[in-house]
Write a structure and sequence with these properties.
This protein has 408 residues and is of the alpha/beta class. It folds into 2 domains: 304 residues, no CATH class; 77 residues, no CATH class. The chain contains 13 helices and 17 strands. A 10-stranded mixed sheet has the order 1-15-14-13-12-11-2-3-7-4, sandwiched between helices. The chain has a 5-stranded antiparallel sheet with strand order 5-6-9-8-10. A two-stranded antiparallel sheet has the order 16-17. Helix 11 links the parallel strand 12 and strand 13. It starts with a strand and ends in a 12-residue tail after the last helix.
Length: 408
């Protein structure tokens, strides 16, 4: 048994898996992906990460007395005031018990106004456009439309932005996101659950909601709608957690979590995760439980960066929850730049130097890196955890006849 993972062998397997037109193939796009979009230095990133988004919102609302009180109460509860998702989840938890009285010094109206303010600030930061037609998002969509498939591609995302929608529209890739109608699009649960959409339409499932989803009351009943762009002063449906909001908010979230579960449970399903840090335990449970029930399914998590943090960043494992899960679940594989957990086995990437495995196209995605020191030691890196590098991998093989490629 080898004590390393040969990158060429596993890149062949990935290429072969992606070439199948009659198997369930899906992508899971999460918070790290927008950071891969190239921008001028003074404009990067296109969308900030959660930490920097939170800092911007805390500054913007810093003079708001009610918001300051909310942060004080958040800290008392042991929550993180530097994470906007924790802030929004805490606020909505208070809303659930605020009927008829104040909670922690905040009234129901105070909490509703704060939710609208926070969501409005999130929309301001996330309502942006991709800079051109050669971004990682466009490369993904080019690959999606490159061949006709017997089973449609499914794209899951926890991001609230509209970057995927823009790229799909730019390249005229037909897709279904659970909503139907044109004047005021509404969520069609039956179409989602019964899969009533044409095969050539890809599926886009926004698990945590979107900046262009909103709730409104019509004839005394709360409804979830979707617009073509964010609606000002609306009650936006952004789900940073699995809190059980009132039924009208809960329904799209639960339906889309179920869709993720159903996808992974399909025979020989293959789901690729990009930009996901495994910090959402509810999503982790959904993924692992589905994998346990379906030994033929596979989830590949492509993680940005090295296996461990640098000493400057405190050292230790970079994605501890991901590693813990992958070392117990054989069909969850995790690739970092310098190491991988495959079949529960953690090993370095290392070329096997087998002449039969030479593949110049795949070698483009294996980098030889010199180890710090003077002895000239080198290691191999596979950087598909960079969303830009992964979509370059997809682009490389668009139109290739990969059906006869073999990989183990």
């Amino acid at each position: 048994m080898t004590n390393f993972h040969d990158p060429i062998r596993h890149l062949k397997y990935l290429r072969q898996s992606l070439s199948q037109d009659n198997e369930a193939i899906g992508f899971f796009i999460s918070a790290g992906c927008p950071l891969s979009v190239t921008m001028p230095e003074d404009e990067w990133p296109l969308i900030p990460d959660v930490n920097n988004l939170t800092k911007a919102i805390n500054v913007s609302l810093g003079e708001n007395e009610k918001y300051s009180l909310l942060l004080v109460e958040l800290q008392k509860a042991g929550k993180d005031r530097e994470n906007i998702e924790d802030i929004l989840s805490f606020l909505r938890g208070l809303q659930a018990v605020s009927k008829g009285g104040d909670v922690r010094g905040l009234s129901e109206d105070d909490l509703s106004a704060l939710e609208q303010l926070i969501c409005g600030e999130i929309v301001k930061k996330l309502d942006v456009l991709l800079p051109d037609v050669e971004t990682p998002y466009h490369r993904l969509c080019k690959w999606v439309r490159s061949i006709d498939r017997k089973i449609p591609i499914e794209i899951f995302t926890t991001n609230y932005d509209l970057l995927l929608e823009q790229a799909l529209d730019d390249l005229e890739v037909p897709y279904f996101d659970g909503f139907v109608g044109s004047h005021r699009s509404f969520f069609d649960l039956r179409a989602v659950e019964d899969d009533l959409i044409p095969i050539h339409w890809s599926r886009l499932w926004k698990i945590h909601g979107s900046i262009n989803w909103y709730q409104e009351t019509k004839a005394g009943e709360k409804k979830v709608s979707r617009s073509s762009s964010p609606v000002k002063n609306a009650s936006h449906l952004i789900y940073p957690s699995h809190l059980k909001y009132e039924e009208s908010r809960k329904m799209p979230y639960l339906a889309l979590i179920d869709q993720l579960n159903r996808f992974i449970r399909r025979k020989s399903s293959f789901l690729i995760l990009n930009g996901y840090s495994f910090n959402d335990n509810h999503l982790n449970d959904a993924i692992i439980n589905a994998l346990k029930s379906n030994p033929t399914g596979m989830v590949l998590a492509l993680q940005f960066g090295s296996y461990e943090l640098s000493d400057k960043d405190g050292g230790g494992p970079r994605y501890p929850r991901a590693y813990e899960l992958a070392e117990r679940q054989h069909n969850l594989n995790v690739w970092t730049f310098d190491k991988a957990i495959i079949g529960t086995n953690l090993c370095d990437w290392k070329l096997a130097n087998n002449p039969d495995d030479e593949d110049k196209d795949l070698m483009n995605f294996v980098q030889t890196v010199k180890v710090d020191g003077d002895d000239g030691t080198t290691i191999q890196n596979v950087k598909l955890g960079d969303f830009s590098e992964f979509t370059n991998f997809l682009k490389k093989f668009i139109g290739s006849d990969m059906g006869d490629q073999s990989g183990q």
